[in-house]
Amino acid sequence: MNVMRQTDDTTATAEIKIAAKGVQVYYGDNHAIKDVDVDIADRTVTAFIGPSGCGKSTFLRCLNRMNDTIDICRVEGKITLDGEDIYDKRVDPVQLRAKVGMVFQKPNPFPKSIYDNVAYGPRIHGLARSKAELDEIVEKSLRRAALWGEVKDRLNAPGTGLSGGQQQRLCIARAVATSPEVLLMDEPCSALDPIATAQVEELIDELRSRFAVVIVTHSMQQAARVSRKTAFFHLGNLVEFGETGQIFTNPRDPRTESYITGRIG
Amino acid sequence: MTNAAVHSTPRSGSLFSQDQRTRRRNTAERRFRIYGQAAIGIAMMALVILLASVLGNGLSAFRQTFINMPVTLDADVLDKKGNRDADDLKKVTTIGYSKLLLNSLTQLIEDQGLAIEGLAASDIKDMISDDAAAQVRNRVLANPELIGQTVSLKVLANGRIDGYLKGRVSMESAERDSNVSVNQLRLTDEMMERGLIGKSFNWSFITAADASELRPEAAGLGVAILGSAYMMIVVLVLALPIGVAASIYLEEFAPKNRWTDLIEVNISNLAAVPSIVFGILGLAIFINFAGLPQSAPIVGGLVLTLMTLPTIIISTRAAIKAVPPSIRDAALGIGASKMQTVFHHVLPLAAPGILTGTIIGLAQALGETAPLLLIGMVAFVRDFPAAPPEGLFDPAAALPVQVYNWTQRADPAFVERASGAIIVLLIFLLAMNAVAILLRRKFERRW
Asked: What residue ranges are annotated as transmembrane (chain A) (predicted)?
């Protein structure tokens, strides 16, 4: 916690990108998320922390309706993106997910070439009119994911042949390629070694300038390093949400304090 | 003196001697290995015995005895009007041709000075297969210029003579056999010495149609192979798309509720339904209700499709299930629709499994006999079906049914024919499995 980043941004009062109000999630009879209110600011990194099974990943998956793929999952409450309710009947989750990209816990590149991995999103969304344009998007996305230098000579090599850290950055490049507005990251570094983790964290810091980034993490150090806002979840409740510095140095809730000092979790 | 390291003494027995527990565990493992090896040994032995018996009985079906003789195609007999008109030529039946063959063979025996005591004209006539006249007739009708010439032909010998060359018929058995005489066998010996009679590769076993009980030497698999091929086409065209579509829907799109559970259970049940039940179903629905023709490959194909569908659905669902969910998440996460996810990512990854399942299903269908018996494919079919699609409605036989058919016949010459047909069937199955392996390799190489 000694590496706490100063909140040097002066655009402190950023616009709210995603607003969640009274969100309840049920898995069958299991009440997994209880009445959560969170505002996620644009061009900021927001971290969700909490012990295993506290519902932070579940809540993250509500933000781009990935929970729709689970039959028994039911979401109540209101989540808005730019003021529009994403659970409205008129919303097609496919369109929503193009705006709200996601990076998963385990690197999951497609068993295709590196190029095709990144190009897949732009292709299905029709973002490129020509091959040259597509090449450009692929290069830009790989550069943004700090992977271009390592793979530019072997774009046709299989994406699954990369190392774990490279694969995760490839997944980030793939998510970035569709030019989303929000990037959700579900424990993106849990399968990576410290060096790869550092690279991904550096990357998140850069991505912050363009997207609203939401990151779920097990590591409090990581939350402290990369995020400006932190939400602490416990047993499906949002216990505390505030500036990262304040959460780690001066938590208001005794449960938060117990967690960050290692007594629960 | 240097400080020699002092070793501690083992507290619980030496590592070099096995304690009783370890010994028991090791014997148990050894025993298990022996069981396994014995099981594999028995399986290999069964396979070797099967192959040896099939090959031993059946390989001789691929070689057939022919008489090499000059045949005088007498214009006075074959074309009395001398105008080479096709319709007039057709008026000469096989009886006319068999007389020609008899004359030619008698001539040959005289020319060669083959004097067998007591050899009757009927003995000479019976040296030649009844089917030979028809073969020569077809040849002349196809090529009328041959009329009036003396052509050197390989004339199909009688099945008993063929049996003598293959060791099935002996002098002793001939004495008791009304279909062959000792004199004929003596003549055969003489002719063999002069190279007038001998065995050569029997193409007509693969290309010709079935023949009657009385002329096993002419029986072939042509109609059966065509019928089986037509049925496989029908099965592939119907079962693959229906099966894959059903599996994708059930696996990826269908809600999980009581109805889909019921469907799932019943698909598994269908896979276990005895095939003859499908035959009765086909008879009731396709022939009696829908009015499709009997013995037709289309009906056989439909019945086999019903039988193959559960196999394909089960293996396809397993293949789709084996695709890691992380791939689906990845595709959905960048905004692919459900259908794009399935067709761009899940299906290509499941393709090797789907193909393997399909080909195993097809191979099963190819070897299926029981349902085909019920829809009339056991009939004696002499005419080749036309080219598809019309040919799908023509009567045809099928390979396994042909095997069944031939094993029912009295003449021992059909034993080798049945085994030969099994060899052809096995070759088809091996070829299909080879295709399955190749396709799987090809698709799996996409890392």
From this structure: none
Q: Give the mean pLDDT of A133-161.
A: 90
Q: How many CB atoms lie within 10 A of CB B71?
A: 25
The answer to whether B206 faces chain A, any CB pair under 8 Å, is no
Q: Closest Cα to residue B235, out of B313, B316, B309, B314?
A: B309
Q: Which helix (H) or strand (E) holds A212?
A: strand A212-216
**Which residues on chain B are in Cβ contact (under 8 Å) with A174?**
330, 334
Q: In terms of DSSP bridges, do strands B63-72 and A182-186 run parallel, antiparallel, or are they unpaired?
A: unpaired
Query: Residue with structure tokens 């780690």?
Result: A248
> Residue A184 and residue A179: Cα distance in Å, rounded?
13
Tens digit of pLDDT for each residue in B53-90?
Answer: 999 988 988 999 998 888 888 888 787 777 777 787 88
Mean pLDDT score, B219-237: 92
What's the token pair of residue A111?
A: 């068993």
Residue A252: count of CB within 10 angstroms of its CB: 11
CA–CA dist A171, B330 (Å, integer): 8
Bridging pattern class, strands A212-216 and A16-27: unpaired
Q: Please indicate whether, in this complex, the C-beta atoms of A120 and B336 are within 8 angstroms of each other.
A: yes
Contact A161 B255 (CB under 8 A): no
**Per-residue pLDDT, B142:** 86
B332 touches chain A (CB under 8 A): yes
- Domain borders along chain B are 64-201, 222-444
Helix H or strand E segment including A61: helix A56-62
Asked if pLDDT for residue B132 goes beyond 80, the answer is yes
| A3 has pLDDT over 70 | no
Give the domain A16-260 fold: Rossmann fold (3.40.50)
Regarding beta strands A237-243 and A229-234, do their DSSP bridges make them parallel or antiparallel, or are they unpaired? antiparallel
Q: Which two tokens stand for residue B34?
A: 């022996």
Among the partner-chain residues B327, B332, B337, the one whose CB lies closest to the CB of A110 is: B327
Choose, out of B334, B346, B349, the residue to mutate when testing the contact with A (most A CBs < 10 Å): B334
| Local confidence band at B25 (pLDDT 50, 70, 90 cut-offs) | very high
Whether B131 contacts B211, CB under 8 Å = yes
Q: What pLDDT, on the 0 to 100 scale, is given for residue A182?
A: 92
Dist CA A231 CA B90 (whole Å): 97
C-alpha A228/C-alpha A46 separation (Å) is 6
Average pLDDT, chain A: 87
Q: Which CATH class is domain B222-444?
A: mainly alpha
Sequence ranges of the domains in chain A: 16-260
Quote the CA–CA distance of A100 and A212 in Å, as a whole number: 9
CA distance A183 to chain B (A): 10
Query: Is B377's pLDDT higher than 80?
Result: yes
Q: Return mean pLDDT, chain B.
A: 88
pLDDT at residue B52, rounded to an integer? 94
Phi/psi of residue A180, each to 5°? -75, 175
